[in-house]
Design brief:
Radius of gyration: 17 Å
Largest sheet: 5 strands, mixed
Shape: globular
Number of strands: 7
Oligomer: single chain
Strand content: 15-25%
Strand order of the largest sheet: 4-5-6-3-7
Structural class: alpha/beta
Low-confidence stretches: none
Length: 182
Amino acid sequence: MDTAEAAIVEYQEELHSDFWGCAASEYKILAEDKDAGTTALISPIPREEQAALQAEVERQFAERGYARIISVKPRKIGESTWAQLLVVNMCQTVPHTRALTISYDRDGTEFLNEMAEIVVDNLETPEAFPTAVHTDKLIRWANGSSARYQTQGGPRGTAKGRGGTPTVLVVEELPSWEEGRR
């Protein structure tokens, strides 16, 4: 491994061990200024709830090697943003990560996929994360990691969001059952 490759590996390890430092230095999210009626790419600033969730994920990983977080109404407090930043971070810094994000409807699936694509497409140091090939609701990294976006539910026999063994799973709210389904 040459010096440049070693520096990139060291940088990736640093970004994996310091999630919010990585978010501040590498990632951009699309934010809306409702007063001005505009949007702009900004570095994410953690809300109290997001920081608490990240601390809990880190605690669980340290104790048992995986984390399970169940959240109700994640979009209300920015947990969707945090979750997609975490998905991107894990895929970029942990080779062969298989991330799966499942939303309860198509619009939610599109929104979450677009959120991750914005982060990936606007990295400060894209050469540190050879990426990201985008196809329909799938992002692949050169390190063998991938992030897939699927929708829950559907008529019997056509349900999406099943199968495979993800190493990171994000379930974005639970669907309400259509009439006649129990």
